[in-house]
Amino acid sequence: MDDDVMDQAYRVAGRAVRERIRAERPDDARELDGVAAAEIAVVTGQYDHIERVLTATAVPFTRVAPQEAAALDWQRLQVLLVSCPGMLPAAAREHIAPWVRRGGYLLTTDWALKHLIEPAFPGTVRHNGVQTPDTVVRIAGGESLDDPLISGFLESGREPLWWLESASYPIEVIDAARVRVLIRSGEVGRQWGADPVVVTFEEGHGTVVHMLSHLYLQRSDVRDARDAQPAAAYMAGAGYAQSEVDFCAAAAPALRASELMSAASTSRFLSDVVVQQRRRARAR
Known about the structure:
This protein is an alpha/beta fold. The chain has a single domain (about 5-284), classed as Rossmann fold (3-Layer(aba) Sandwich), CATH 3.40.50.880. About 40% of the residues lie in helices and about 20% in strands. An 8-stranded mixed β-sheet has the order 2-1-3-4-12-11-10-7, with helices on both faces. Strand 1, helix 3 and strand 2 (about 60-65) form a beta-alpha-beta unit.
């Protein structure tokens, strides 16, 4: 899948998700409108591009390279997103665990499991030593089926799939009493030895979430006629605002429903993470 196609998908989906939140969840929309760039930070990576999702959804954030992360405003920071490979220098890593314990929300992807999560939070999860090929696998809910953060990935009426980048790192849970598996894949478990796809655990007052493969999806998978239809037609049938349907038809007429749905799921996920964390921080 060409990056340009998914960039179009995220541009359309980001607008549409933000508009739907504004129409259906006005309190959440006000939370997003109140975000300051210092509250959200993305540590860029070579292989994942979380910053593209936030940009498309119009969520303000601070973008830093790994070597700049130590200089973040750790007092104001609420959500830290670390893109694969997650190789931060020691000066930045030493901030991570204490910041999470004070109430921060850390989300990491793929190789950051080995490079950041294992050294910062030993005894929780680890890379099982195997690498996956580039493939798409079926997924299912884990222990927390009602967790609102994963609802977009487990869409009703659609077989949920997950794209694994080449050389993704399967997640082995060490502390099963502490770590919750939000999404599993039996295929990953059978073929590569560990079935967790998205895991989370609490650390002090804060939260850590790690996911197998990447948050910014660089391709999608067409499985049926619904997936293959034009994205604008899908949006019209799915109840999106007419202004967003018209924008999709004009800006990305060749976009397919599968690409739009993939982008919308991650756009919605990150928006919900930000809303949830701002409310938790205010409650504390």
